[in-house]
Write a structure and sequence with these properties.
By secondary structure, the chain is an alpha/beta fold. It folds into three domains: 173 residues, FAD/NAD(P)-binding domain (3-Layer(bba) Sandwich); 90 residues, protoporphyrinogen ix oxidase, domain 3 (Orthogonal Bundle); 101 residues, Protoporphyrinogen oxidase, mitochondrial, domain 2 (Polyamine Oxidase, Chain A, domain 2, Alpha-Beta Complex), CATH 3.90.660. It is built from 16 helices and 20 strands. A hairpin with a 2-residue loop joins strand 3 and strand 4. Helix 2 crosses helix 16, helix 8 crosses helix 9 and helix 12 runs antiparallel to helix 15. Bound molecules: flavin-adenine dinucleotide (FAD). The site of flavin-adenine dinucleotide (FAD) has 37 residues, from helix 1, helix 11, strand 15 and helix 16.
């Protein structure tokens, strides 16, 4: 075999597809331990609903995912304009996060002193610390209130993470660069806007772009890749271990088979790659095992439109940890992508668990349903019970790029140099999102093909 790929999530499948698109004669096989492919991309259809058990979409401001979709003849579906309306739960009610600076300053999201403290950012001194937590950065530059109200819930929304552990430079390199290059965020934004005037580029300190998916949900991307790869994807087959062979590697599978391959790509989560490498390179295992993965549960609920006493027409809301709720936030999927619920129904998706309360994701279905209803009913004006409840659990959901993550990557890179033709791939390393995984597949496929 030319290339053996462990892990049939978006990273592994897109890599296999890109390799074969350039060199169809290659012998490439993807081994996936579960009965289904897709990993954290998990779309199901039920009673007229399109349910996303994991990934909801990707931002359309980075080209590689769109390029891949185009190769597969998939038409992207951009979220509705309603999705621009985002809310934060504060002091018992939902408050809209205004997009424009003037709208934001006029809103009631922060107190007057919180807003004045935010303006101090323009003159706050630059930090010299190399690897700072998101919390330390935000409190230092933006103030405690802005951290608690805006930044901490954002860390929950993206990483399901704990802002007092997440590394600013590993999680939000763009924001870190603004401070390092321009001395601060406000100064950096003004300079970049000024510079971009001529080139007419959109400038933002955040991720930018619009949330995008496909008519049939994110699962359409996986289905198209799987159809294309056909028999080259072997599900229900776990990669157990790896060893050096005369040329390349010998890989042991859980069905007792051994397979030799010139190149091996571990597109498995870091903790799974750590297991695979245990007897092969204990130092790599030690590094990989340090990347934590908290649990997350996704609770999908369908309601009749008439169950709402007030109209909710935005993206959804995030909950700051100071609010003392147990949910991380709720998205209105049928507002974001119309057609996700049958006519006359609304589909909500609530996230529970994450780094601050990982164990909450492991509650029983009945407990999770009660918990979500207790926490969203009064906030969203819901009367009555949901018509549909479907719960998805991710035992080890999202890799946490905590302080020290960059050092782990450096050490892994050094250790990996000893093993020519062995690659670590997937969202455990340099970007957790679908866009990151696909960009990294484009890059890695080029690297592998060049090495042949
Ligand atoms: C609840 C949730 C919501 C998310 N929402 C978004 C979102 O909206 N947008 C976004 O960009 N990102 C989102 N993410 C992040 C998302 O996980 C990544 O974007 C991406 O799906 C990761 O893909 P991957 O292939 O790298 O890893 P995974 O999807 O984890 O795939 C790894 C695969 O390896 C398999 N595997 C494990 N061990 C073995 C083994 N020993 N042998 C063989 N196979 C093995 C697993 O079964 C799995 O299929 C979300 C994550 C979660 C958990």
């Amino acid at each position: 075999m030319d290339v053996l790929i462990a892990g049939g999530g978006i990273s592994g499948l897109s890599l296999a597809y890109l390799l074969l698109r350039s060199r169809p004669e290659l012998d490439v096989v993807v081994y996936e331990s579960e009965t289904k492919t897709g990993g954290k991309i998990w779309t199901e259809k039920q009673d007229g609903y399109t349910l996303e058990g994991g990934v909801n979409g990707f931002l359309n401001n980075r080209e590689k995912t769109l390029e891949l979709a185009d190769m597969l003849n998939l038409q992207p579906l951009i979220s509705s304009d309603k999705a621009r309306k985002r809310y934060i739960y504060k002091d018992g009610k939902l408050r809209q996060v205004m997009e424009s600076p003037i709208g934001f300053m006029a809103s009631d999201l922060l107190s007057l002193s919180g807003k004045l403290r935010l303006l101090y950012e323009a003159v706050a001194p630059r930090n010299c610390q190399d690897d700072e937590t998101l919390r330390d950065f935000a409190v230092r530059r933006l103030g405690r209130e802005a951290f608690e109200t805006l930044i901490e819930p954002m860390a929950s929304g993206i990483y399901a993470g704990d802002a007092s552990k997440l590394s600013l430079k590993s999680c939000f390199p763009k924001i870190n660069n603004l401070e390092q290059t321009y001395g601060g965020l406000i100064r950096g934004m003004i300079r970049m806007k000024w510079d971009a005037r001529k080139s007419k580029h959109e400038v933002s300190a955040g991720p930018g772009g619009k949330l995008t998916s496909f008519e049939g949900g994110m699962g359409s991307l996986i289905a198209a890749l799987k159809e294309n790869l056909g028999q080259r994807v072997k599900t229900s087959t776990k990669v157990i271990s790896i060893d050096k062979a005369e040329s390349g590697y010998v890989v042991t599978l859980d069905n007792g088979e051994t397979v030799t391959a010139g190149r091996v790509v571990l597109s498995t989560p870091a903790y799974a790659s750590a297991e695979i490498l245990r007897d092969f390179d204990a130092s790599m295992t030690r590094e990989l095992a340090q990347i934590p993965y908290p649990s997350v549960a996704v609770v999908c609920m369908g309601f009749k439109v008439g169950s709402f006493t007030q109209v909710f027409d935005g993206f959804g809301f995030l909950v700051p940890s100071v609010a003392n709720k147990r949910i991380l936030g709720t998205l209105c999927d049928s507002c974001i992508f119309p057609g996700r619920a049958p006519e006359g129904f609304i589909l909500l998706r609530t996230m529970i668990g994450g780094a601050r309360a990982s164990e909450a994701a492991n509650k029983s279905d009945a407990e999770l349903t009660t918990l979500v209803m207790e926490e969203i009913s009064s906030v969203m004006g819901i009367q009555g019970e949901p018509e549909l409840v479907r719960i998805y659990r991710h035992q080890r959901a999202i890799p946490q790029y905590n302080v020290g993550h960059a050092t782990i990557l450096e050490r892994l890179q050094q250790l990996q140099r000893k093993h020519l033709g062995l690659y670590l791939h997937g969202n455990s390393y340099k970007g957790i999102g679908v866009n990151d995984c696909i960009e990294s597949s484009f890059k890695l496929s080029g690297e592998i093909l060049n090495s042949m």
